């Protein structure tokens, strides 16, 4: 069976205030054409369909159009909700859509009930595991603890139990939205560390033939059977070196996996340039970036006059300007955003405690209290978001 594995569309998201709806539409055109031209037998969308719980109308309309086009092809689509989606909103009408071959899986309780497809070699069971927020699904799944590894493990126990009752030779696929140990992150994924450590081991997916993952924006292979498709578009400059694509997966009669990357259309390349303003304005080697979306980091010891306007005359798609002087007595002048980049809420809070106590960091008890407070705030935010 030939599967097309994609995820993290983030419909409605912009890039440094640049509207990406046209680029997202171009990707969905490409997806539909790939399904048609490459003989795809099922489409897998591993979460984060939208960028936020209440997406803009234009994003909803684009999603609706994509579902209609996939349904018209007669190719089943299995889709789960991610941590950016509102599971309840995304799942509205799921029963009706199922009749058209669009299978929305947004309820954690149903994770052990597969979508059953058949090809010339027999049945294939596709299990959709939506994003599992530990504090909100622990009881429903009967997990021993409210952390990511426990709730995903409990969900996979349901998958394996159902699979054990299927006819011998039934092949299996799981869609999941999670941070799996060994994956490489970027700046544009929303932190999911609520409930303690965010990552789960790849071994949690043992027992199934293929795990189609979403959440991390870089396309990557954790094992031959456990892969991230990544996002189809770059949503931060940390993704400048990503090759955006989907996985075309062939599931053989014995469950063996063969996978091929299908490149996604690139609306505009990304470039990060760095140096003193005058060099960035004059360096002929930078001419290749003049049509790119550009993040410019200025290393001048003093801020130049009107740098954004001057750079924009050469780089017409300059969208981000950062100051990071190479010299100077006080490196703390770096921007607040720079100092926080890549750091978790827990790390930021612990650094603050160390700062206000003149170098004495938080002890184990204090770190646990900080973690509990951060988790409580995040869960309250998620509950409020679902209620909106």
TrEMBL record:
Protein name: Nuclease SbcCD subunit D
Keywords, sorted A to Z: DNA recombination, DNA replication, Endonuclease, Exonuclease, Hydrolase, Nuclease
Oligomeric form and interacting partners: Heterodimer of SbcC and SbcD.
Bilayer-spanning residue ranges: none
NCBIfam families found in the cross-reference section: sbcd (TIGR00619)
Keyword Transmembrane: no
Job of this protein: SbcCD cleaves DNA hairpin structures. These structures can inhibit DNA replication and are intermediates in certain DNA recombination reactions. The complex acts as a 3'->5' double strand exonuclease that can open hairpins. It also has a 5' single-strand endonuclease activity.
Sequence ranges assigned to domain Nuclease SbcCD subunit D C-terminal in this UniProt record: 267-356
Residue ranges annotated for the Calcineurin-like phosphoesterase domain, each copy included: 1-218
Lineage: superkingdom: Bacteria
SUPFAM superfamilies referenced in this protein's UniProt entry, alphabetically: Metallo-dependent phosphatases
Keyword Nuclease applies: yes
Assigned protein family: Belongs to the SbcD family.
Gene Ontology molecular function: any one: exonuclease activity
């Amino acid at each position: 069976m030939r599967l097309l594995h994609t995820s993290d569309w983030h419909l409605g998201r912009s890039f440094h205030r640049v509207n990406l709806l046209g680029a997202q539409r171009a990707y969905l055109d490409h997806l539909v054409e790939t399904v048609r031209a490459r003989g795809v037998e099922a489409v897998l969308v591993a979460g984060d369909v939208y960028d936020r719980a209440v997406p803009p109308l234009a994003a909803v309309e684009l999603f609706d159009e994509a579902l209609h086009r996939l349904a018209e092809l007669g190719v089943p689509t299995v889709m789960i909700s991610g941590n950016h989606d509102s599971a309840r909103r995304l799942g509205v009408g799921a029963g009706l859509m199922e009749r058209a071959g669009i299978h929305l899986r947004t309820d954690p309780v149903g994770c052990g009930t597969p979508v059953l497809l058949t090809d010339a070699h027999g049945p294939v069971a596709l299990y959709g595991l939506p994003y599992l927020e530990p504090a909100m699904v622990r009881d429903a799944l009967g997990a021993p603890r409210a952390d990511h590894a426990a709730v995903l493990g409990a969900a996979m126990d349901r998958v394996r139990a159902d699979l054990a009752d299927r006819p011998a030779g039934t092949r299996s696929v799981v869609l999941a939205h999670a941070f799996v140990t060994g994956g490489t992150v970027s700046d544009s994924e929303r932190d999911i560390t609520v409930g303690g450590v965010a990552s789960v081991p790849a071994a949690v997916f043992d027992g199934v033939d293929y795990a189609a993952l979403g959440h991390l924006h870089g396309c990557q292979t954790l094992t031959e059977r456990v892969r991230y498709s990544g996002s189809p578009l770059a949503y931060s400059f940390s993704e400048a070196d990503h090759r955006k694509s989907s996985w075309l997966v062939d599931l053989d009669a014995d469950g063996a996996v063969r996978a091929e990357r299908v490149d996604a259309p690139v609306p505009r390349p990304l470039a990060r340039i760095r140096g003193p303003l005058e060099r960035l304005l004059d360096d002929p080697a930078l001419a290749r970036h003049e049509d790119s979306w550009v993040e410019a980091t200025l290393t001048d010891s003093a801020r130049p006059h009107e740098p954004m306007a001057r750079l924009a005359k050469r780089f017409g798609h300059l969208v981000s300007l950062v100051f990071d002087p190479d010299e100077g007595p006080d490196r703390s002048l770096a921007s607040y955003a720079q100092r926080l980049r890549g750091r978790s809420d827990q790390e930021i809070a612990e650094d603050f405690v160390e700062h206000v106590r003149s170098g004495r960091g938080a002890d184990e008890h204090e770190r646990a209290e900080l973690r509990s407070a951060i988790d409580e705030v995040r869960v309250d935010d998620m509950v409020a978001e679902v209620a909106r």
